[in-house]
Design brief:
Oligomer: single chain
Helix content: 25-40%
Strand content: 15-25%
Shape: elongated
Number of strands: 16
Strand order of the largest sheet: 1-2-8-7-3-9-10-14-13-12-11
Structural class: alpha+beta
Radius of gyration: 25 Å
């Protein structure tokens, strides 16, 4: 039988959260948020900065919904350094305040498409990335663009291509960080109005003097309008091409193939120049082919190869280099994985698209902040690595018993551990 002794000491479990809160302050994000979003009503107890910081700190101690701030983590958060703790109702109400109206567009086939872009939050996101040093003005970056279907049974969500209800946001990223988000309802085709989404992305980045060198996109971006926008705003682009009869014939007639080892697989590659969309501009198509493991004859090519093509305006990189560079865009899938499972996108809280856009934007900013913070922390303390997913970071860093004590007339943080947290000061 276990003998139990109760203690009245105010010892809490998430001591590492004090350093996360302190990092938020040291980066100057409170003032930046207030400058970007403005002031709330004179009768409001909590500022936008207070509420956003509450959301982020709640996520950094494992909270999954706003209600957790009162149900599970109130005592810890109230003892966290420089955190003005608010209620779950305040967190939800402020997100609704920050929402913007949906835009409705009817496509040629009569489909009603719903869009929501929150310009203030997208602009704030870039300001934060510049402030914390992730993005640097005039420096050139590589941009990835993709869409992800988020299944959810919300009041206004619509059935998408996966035959379930949800949203279908468009996301642009640089490196590991999200730089632009436009939310779409689930029934919106990935290609519909995508060129306008990309145009707004480039306009936002240009307004902050962030330059894009190369852009990568999947076949959902293979349209005449998208290629024109991307070509006008980048130096080089790489887009997965969709096949047509004319292109398939040209590929089949091509005789000069070179065997390359790519990702430990032997692949035949070649460059073919072709004019897509029946226009005058000719582009390079980097084509790869490999034997179909089933040996089945392809209807289009008439042989047993599996073909893939990348359209690009890059004439300098070798075929192998183009394919390897394009395949690296798989990192965007990891971004969605982390947003869904670590930063709440799989459990969006509201009933309406525009309100959920606010939540998704704020949590994408939280992830950007986390990526920057853990990189800086890993340079000072040995028990943190930049590869840590959020759960591991919480278990290795945030979860440490603590209490506040007075010593020498000063308030000090006492941690019950031998880990060298003091190196962060």
């Amino acid at each position: 039988m276990i003998k139990v002794l109760n203690s009245g000491d105010n010892i809490q479990a998430f001591g590492g959260l004090n350093f996360v809160s302190d990092h938020f302050d040291k980066e100057g994000l409170d003032k930046l948020i207030e400058t970007a979003l403005g002031s709330r009503s004179i009768y409001a107890t909590y500022s936008y900065s207070d509420v956003i910081k509450n959301m982020w700190m709640l996520n950094f101690c494992g909270g999954e919904c706003a209600e957790d701030i009162q149900t599970h983590f109130k005592a810890t958060l109230e003892n966290t350094h420089n955190l003005n703790v608010c209620s779950a109702d305040t967190i939800l109400r402020v997100q609704k305040e920050l929402s913007t109206s949906k835009v409705l567009k009817i496509s040629k086939n009569g489909t009603l498409n719903e869009f929501n872009t929150n310009d203030n939050l997208n602009n704030l996101n870039i300001n934060i990335l510049v402030k914390i040093g992730v993005l640097v003005a005039t420096k050139e970056y590589d941009l990835d663009f993709d869409n992800q279907f988020i299944p959810c049974e919300k009041y206004d969500s619509k059935k998408g291509y996966k035959m379930s209800k949800g949203y279908f946001p468009s996301v642009a990223s640089i490196g590991r960080c999200t730089v632009y988000l436009e939310n779409r309802n689930g029934n919106t085709n990935v290609k519909y109005e995508q060129h306008n989404t990309l145009l707004k992305t480039f306009q936002l980045l240009n307004s902050h003097n962030i330059k894009i060198n190369r852009a990568r996109m999947d076949c959902g971006s293979f349209t005449r309008e998208v290629i024109k926008v991307v070509e006008s705003n980048t130096k080089r682009f790489y887009i997965r091409a969709m096949r047509c009869d004319d292109l398939s014939t040209k590929i089949k007639e091509h005789k000069e193939w070179k065997t390359e080892l790519i990702n430990d697989k032997k692949v035949e590659v070649a460059s073919i120049y072709y004019k897509p969309f029946k226009e005058d501009t000719e582009y390079r198509y980097v084509v790869s082919r490999e034997p179909n493991p089933t040996g089945q004859i392809d209807v289009f090519s008439g042989d047993s190869y599996t073909y893939r093509a990348i359209i690009t305006n890059d004439t300098e990189m070798t075929d192998k280099e183009v394919i390897i560079f394009y395949n690296q865009r798989g990192g965007s899938e990891k971004i969605f994985d982390e947003l869904n499972n670590d930063f709440g996108w799989a459990k969006i809280p509201f009933s309406f698209l525009n309100e959920n856009t606010v939540y998704m934007m704020l949590m994408a900013m939280c992830r950007n902040f986390y990526i920057s913070m853990i990189e800086k922390m890993s340079n000072k303390i040995p028990f943190i690595q930049t590869s840590f997913r959020l759960k591991k970071f919480i278990l290795r860093f945030v979860v440490v018993p603590f209490k506040w004590i007075k010593q020498g007339g000063q308030k000090r943080l006492k941690l019950f551990t031998d880990k060298p947290y003091y190196l962060l000061n």
